[in-house]
Design a protein that fits this description.
Blueprint: E1 3-4, E2 10-11, E3 30-35, H1 46-56, E4 60-66, E5 76-83, E6 87-88, E7 91-92, E8 107-113, E9 116-121, E10 128-132, E11 137-140, E12 145-150, E13 156-163, H2 171-176, E14 180-185, E15 188-193
Antiparallel strand pairs: 1-2, 3-4, 4-5, 5-13, 6-7, 8-11, 8-13, 9-10, 9-12, 14-15
Bound molecules: fructose -6-phosphate and manganese (II) ion.
């Protein structure tokens, strides 16, 4: 049976398969590909990102497959999120990260493959880093900006799920960045202050 939502969107039952090796979703509606060249400014050392591109050429940093589930209260949107391994200097490849436009909406990430973490930061307060490895579920409460970070050497694949009406606010992260960065130090991930916090867009 189809359910007509207040705004006219229609949700109907379905199921999809996410390939646990590649992260590709069957029958997806939208496929977002983020190449490194479009992400230079998210890194704490953008010059190092430009050097990487000059030496290695462009590469896919992360991608997302999703179904067009209505963006309304009551529905749950989900996707397959794939972040590839790599580093700019010592800083790991990661997603842009965002707040939800409806700040009070939460999210869960179920990790399917790889080794990584989710960095979570409220507008004030301490950063929280939760580990991601197959079978691990990370809960992102409302009010926390969040991003996936691949600290391993294989694709980090997860299934994020979040309220249909959460929406995405990328601008404050684009302008300011996260207050912290995750870098490799002595062969291990370390959480450091972001030297470019507050002026990422500049
Ligand atoms: C949705 C969510 C994830 C991310 C995905 C890509 O609210 O948090 O599905 O959208 O991991 O990351 P961004 O959105 O930061 O480019
Ligand atoms: Mn989110």
């Amino acid at each position: 049976m189809q359910i007509k939502m207040e705004n006219g969107a229609v949700a109907f039952p379905f199921s999809v398969k996410i390939n646990s090796v590649t992260g590709k979703m069957d029958d997806y509606d939208t496929h977002i590909e983020r190449s490194l060249s479009t992400l230079v400014s998210i890194f704490s050392d953008p010059d190092a990102a430009e050097d990487f591109l000059e030496k290695n050429g462009d590469t896919l940093a992360y991608e997302v497959y999703e179904k067009n589930i209505p963006e309304v209260n009551g529905e749950i949107r989900f996707c397959s999120s794939i972040t590839y391994p790599g580093k700019i200097g010592n800083e790991y490849f990661m997603t842009k990260g965002h707040f939800h436009s409806r700040l009070d909406t939460a999210e869960i990430y179920y990790c399917i493959r790889g080794n990584g973490c989710i960095l979570m930061e409220k507008k004030d307060g301490n950063p929280i880093l939760e580990n991601m490895y197959p079978g691990r579920v990370v809960y992102v409460p409302g009010y926390y900006a969040h991003r996936s970070i691949n600290i391993g050497d294989e694709p980090l694949i997860s299934l994020p799920a979040y309220p249909g009406d959460a929406g995405h606010d990328y601008k404050s992260i684009e302008d300011n960045g996260f207050r912290h960065i995750v870098v490799e130090k002595n062969g291990k991930p370390a959480l450091l202050e972001n030297p470019r916090y507050g002026r990422m867009g500049k």
